[in-house]
Amino acid sequence: MTDNVLSIRELSCDFLAVEGIVYAVNGVNLDLRRAEIHGLVGESGCGKSVSARAVLGLLDRKRCRVGGSVDFDGNNLLLLSEREMRALRGRRISMIFQDPQNSLSPLETAGMQIEEAIANHLPAAKGERRRLAASLLERVGLPPDTAARYPFELSGGMQQRVMIAQAISCNPELLVADEPTTALDVTIQAQVLRLLETLRDELSLSVLLITHNFAVVAEVCDRVSVMYAGFIVETAEAAELIRFPAHPYSRALVNCIPKGRAAGGAGPLPVIPGFPPRLYEPPWGCPFSPRCPKRGSACAERPGSRDLGGGHVVFCHYPEYAPNGDRSFREAP
To answer: What is the DSSP string of 1-29?
Structure first.
């Protein structure tokens, strides 16, 4: 028996574009354990959302070539038909999209949209669906009368909670949250993140949380995978990676987290020099090497994985690591 609810192996996604073939995702490996919140973090355009959409079968197969495997309950999701995926989506696997204003229908009330999700998967009568919708809205911290309101009558935070209620309406095992706090102010962000934690605890829900914000990772994630230019470059326990990032890109992202004045954060924020590679011209070697302060001759070859212990894995020729539990980091041989 495995504790993983989702196992992604060598996932690749290529798109046909005007410039040529865009190699959006390149050999991604990721395990999502049961009842954990796993963060997938990286800059915009690094392949996070494409990976999530590949898991749910939401990519246009006429324009996108998908390879590898995505194992969920013994089934490779990439091999299922659209009919089989529709039976899973919303029932056992749900997704919260980035922009609730564009994801919710403006022509239906919040309650109607939750009831529709229930009707697609559960044999519940209309009255039971209405009762469940009201109960779900209360569960995510909204008054039951929100069911009669249209999305334009709700704030951004309320719209996001409606989407969460819709996503959990059929008690899924896996929830993919794609930048669920991007358009929200800091206070509402915190409330939504606390809600995801509460639902994880109450429903034993596994959450793949996609974000570009390491502050969000620090707040709620159990483990985190860092993604760059379509590659996973580091995976570790969230607290471990934030304290001791081994990959130069992870370290640069962590250093970009705003710090309070008492922590020496009064000066300008650090930046990562340069730009990510164009994905229709992927580099032969390490994709981060053109921007890396530690690059060397070995970076002309693509790095393999290094296991630093405790589930901390990094893909780098020159990682920083803590041998034998010594947390005074030094360069790996």
So the answer is: --SEEEEEEEEEEEEEETTEEEEEEEEEE
